[in-house]
Design a protein that fits this description.
- Helix content is 36%, strand content 18%.
- By secondary structure, it is of the alpha/beta class.
- The longest helix has 16 residues.
- The radius of gyration is 17 Å and the shape is globular.
């Protein structure tokens, strides 16, 4: 692990402090708005192309397992959920809430290969903040972590970053130009990707797949999630 990559520990520490301060809430995982957080959970799950199949999913950076809360609320029982976080506080809380759910306490950049394969891996909020890191330091962390995560996904991954198409930017957030992102995806991960900037927030979400769509996603995945009630009425 490089010295620049080790700086990401400041991000892990920040989220642990949020959880300690605010507890099991949207503020505890540093989302400022509860309704917006729900939208992000929906968008993350919409990366799944097979709404009628049983799939496995890893919530990478699971925090307080609010994605699993969302899945239970909308009866998404075809998705076998597991969680991973580098913060012991987050894993302890998640295991307390869901003792029968597999959780992994690890930093994959440490080289631990104990993580199994999953159909899908979602990374909600892992790359939206950079705190005191420079853009270059954060992009270095981003570009080292994503190939390791993608290697554990049989079908695809989803992650979000902050958009550049905003009225103003915050220095502590990770605003990524789409040109930078696309160049990285094509060179390091896959040419099969979707950029989503259609859900009304100031971040955008990327789905990266191993195989072309072949007609699986539109409109079937939206219809499938609507049947479960996971889509919001005005989505």
């Amino acid at each position: 692990m490089t010295a620049d990559t080790r700086k990401h520990q400041a991000l892990v520490d920040h989220y642990a402090q949020c959880l300690q301060r605010y507890g099991d809430s949207h503020l505890g995982v540093d989302w400022p708005n509860a309704a917006d957080a729900q939208t992000r959970y929906r968008v993350m799950l919409e990366c799944i192309r097979e709404p009628d199949e049983a799939v496995t999913l890893l919530d990478f950076g699971c925090g307080a397992s609010h994605l699993l809360d969302f899945m239970h609320a909308h009866r998404l029982d075809r998705i076998a959920y597991s969680g991973l976080d580098a913060a012991p506080e987050s894993i302890a809380l998640s295991r307390q809430k869901y003792p029968d759910t597999p959780y992994y306490l690890m930093d994959v950049l440490d080289g631990d290969d104990a993580l199994p394969m999953f159909d899908y891996i979602v990374m909600n909020g892992v790359f939206t903040e950079k705190r005191e890191l420079s853009y270059g330091e954060m992009f270095n962390y981003f570009s080292q972590l994503l190939p390791l995560v993608f290697a554990k996904a049989r079908r695809g991954i989803a992650f979000n970053v902050m958009a550049k198409a905003v009225d103003w930017e915050r220095d502590d957030l990770f605003h990524v130009p789409t040109d930078d992102l696309i160049a990285f995806l094509v060179n390091q991960l896959s040419r099969q990707f979707v950029l989503r900037n259609d859900y009304g927030l100031y971040d955008y979400t990327t789905y990266v797949y191993r195989e072309p769509d072949h007609g699986k996603s539109h409109p079937l995945w939206r219809q499938g999630l609507r049947r479960t009630g996971a889509l919001l009425p005005d989505a």
